[in-house]
Write a structure and sequence with these properties.
It is built from 13 helices and no strands. The protein has 259 residues and is mainly α. The longest helix is centred in the N-terminal third of the chain and has 30 residues, at 36-65. The N and C termini lie far apart (54 Å). It is found in: Cell membrane.
Length: 259
């Protein structure tokens, strides 16, 4: 019985982000000024943390089903935001969100990934992270595609549009073939051993390198040239995203959007 309970615990992601997102989302929907900005901040942040949890959960489950060692991977499946590297997979993505307003996911792979048998399976484990965001984006954008958000409270519409944007940016950025990101993790099993060893030391800094490059105007412009068409296809307007970011930054002295 104890073993059964332990197995059950390894198959359930943490419910804390779900509770936070649900509670704050309801508060945003009912529009409770003057705390609207604060509720939007909590809703967006908790939704982002929830997506990071689902991302790590998907990668862990992919590693387990791929034949990875359950002893190294089981604890991460219980609460992905805790089992993952706390700096790379939680703190830095939250910091990047607050500083720049984009969804830049973490880069650390689940423990034991390199012990998954087969190069193709290891590539699929790395691909599970970006795939999570790529699936969440259209799922969250369904109300926009159906026109249902036209009648929704403005604060909720803007906040949800901002969350969709975070998923799109996370999917695109995590696919970059930069050491330390999932895009490189997809390619890594197929690279020569010598090249992998040379690229291993700078891998922990890959996430910071990508963030720094986004401050270069040419790089930033090219990046958003990829993001905005994807959002337009999903039915999410740029204005809604912009206003969502403005409300999210509730600490600004003179917010653009007033309720």
């Amino acid at each position: 019985m104890e073993a059964t309970r332990a197995h059950h615990r390894t198959t359930a992601p943490s419910a804390v982000p779900v509770a936070l997102a649900g509670t704050s989302g309801a508060a945003v929907w009912w529009d409770l000024p003057p705390l609207t900005g604060l509720w939007v901040f909590v809703f967006v942040l908790s939704a982002w943390l929830l997506s990071l949890s689902l991302r790590e959960y998907a990668r862990t489950r992919a590693a387990l089903h791929g034949g990875g060692p359950s002893a190294a991977l089981g604890s991460a499946a219980l609460a992905p935001t805790h089992g993952a590297h706390p700096l790379l997979n939680v703190l830095l993505p939250v910091l990047f969100l607050v500083m720049s307003g984009i969804g830049l996911p973490g880069g650390a792979a689940p423990a034991g990934r390199h012990r998954v048998p087969g190069r193709a399976r290891r590539s699929l484990v790395a691909l599970a992270g970006p795939a999570t965001h790529a699936l969440l984006a259209p799922a969250l954008a369904v109300p926009f595609r159906l026109g249902a958000m036209d009648q929704a409270p403005l604060a909720f519409r803007f906040a949800l549009a901002f969350v969709v944007m975070l998923q799109v940016t996370a999917a695109l950025l995590s696919l970059l073939p930069v050491p330390g990101l999932d895009g490189y993790g997809v390619l890594e099993p197929w690279l020569p051993c010598g090249l992998r060893r040379r690229l291993e030391p700078p891998a922990p800094y890959g996430l910071l390198l990508v963030f720094a490059c986004l401050w270069i105007p040419a790089v930033d412009g090219a990046f958003w040239d990829c993001v905005y068409p994807s959002l337009e296809w999903l039915g999410v307007r740029q204005d809604d995203i912009y206003y969502g970011l403005e409300i999210f930054r509730f600490w600004q002295e003179e917010p653009v959007v007033r309720f």
